[in-house]
Amino acid sequence: MAGDHLSNDDFFAQLTNLFEHNRNKSHGTVYLTQKRLTYAEVEIPSPTKIVDDPLWDLHPEKPLPVLIRASNNKSSKRSGTDRPGTDRDNVEKIKLSTVVQPDKLDAFYARYAEACKSGMSGLKKRDRKKGKKDKKKKKAIPGETKG
Predict the structure, then answer these.
(1) Angle between helices 105-119 and 8-25 in degrees, nearest 10
(2) Which terminus of the chain is more solvent-facing, meaning fewer CB atoms within 10 Å of its CB: N or C?
């Protein structure tokens, strides 16, 4: 499984491509996950150690790397639907992952934040006009004595 992970630079290049691909499609989802990567040789503590410190795994003896994953939402045509908006093409799921060493986390997260911000630039702003009109109507009804 370790051979499947991309280098950090390749991960950012592919992540940028993934965001761009979804922006061009004008729909889609990108899932970003991260978790602590544990080593295979981690020993299971004795029951007395668990009783003494129930959060023993929060302070490991050596710092642990972080596994970062990104994937798109696989979309497929729904059979038998002729509604507008269901004319999507079949898209294969894209999976990306990289391992970040503890000493490189700060630099990685700075670059990761920039990549995520640039990927969110294509999001559409939510239309709030309808909600504002409803609130104005509700406020005008109770005190209908104008003028």
Answers:
(1) 10
(2) C
Output phi, psi for 121, to 5 deg: -65, -25
pLDDT at 88 over 60: no
The CATH class for the domain spanning 2-76+90-140 reads alpha beta
Q: State both tokens at 57.
A: 């795994």
Would you list the DSSP string of 55-100?
A: TGGGS-SSPPPEEEEEEE----PPTT---TT--PPP----EEEEEE
Eight-class DSSP state of 30: E
User: Are 100 and 119 spatial neighbours (Cβ–Cβ below 8 Å)?
Assistant: no
CA-to-CA distance for 141 and 116, rounded, in angstroms? 44
**Model confidence over 47-64: pLDDT tens digits?**
666 667 777 667 777 888
Domain boundaries, the chain: 2-76+90-140
CB atoms within 10 A of CB 11: 23
